[in-house]
Amino acid sequence: QVQLVESGGGLVQAGGSLRLSCARSGRTLGAYAMAWFRQAPGKEREFVSAINWSGTSTYYADSVKGRFTISRDNTKKTAYLQMNSLKPEDTAVYYCAAKRSYGELGFDQTPLPDEYNYWGQGTQVTVSS
């Protein structure tokens, strides 16, 4: 009943920027934590960034700290991932994920894919060198 749709992927040169969006629809009442994961061909799905239900707490993988910024606009039911200084190793399918929140404030550990109940179809990000 909760649907997520990513957009904003594409082809960009190394050093460039992209902004991904993840729009929620369907049964969206309540609080939802949001996250971004990515998966390159032949590799495991890896965590990129997460944001709590209110947007007051964020968490980043070491590989993207200082380059990516996660944000959300609950009025628009949309989460964003601003990606700057992109590198070829950032090339992957990026997935938006969501889960119901019950008041959690922060993140104790790196979020895992199994924690999230709802997933988008993914959007391809390709960074050329």
Task: Identify the notable features of this structure and list them briefly.
single chain; mainly beta; globular
Would you count the extended β strands for me?
11
- Mean pLDDT level: 95
Portion of residues within helices:
under 10%
List the total number of helices.
0
Q: Which sequence of SSEs, written as H and E, runs from N to C? A: EEEEEEEEEEE
Radius of gyration: 14 Å
The assigned structural class equals mainly beta
The largest sheet, given as strand count, sense and whether it forms a barrel, is:
7 strands, mixed
- How much of the sequence lies in strands comes to over 45%
Q: Give start-end ranges of low-pLDDT stretches.
A: none
N- to C-terminal distance: 40 Å
Which word captures the global form?
Answer: globular
Chain-wise SSE layout:
Elements: E1 2-7, E2 10-13, E3 18-26, E4 32-39, E5 46-51, E6 58-60, E7 68-73, E8 78-83, E9 92-100, E10 118-119, E11 123-128
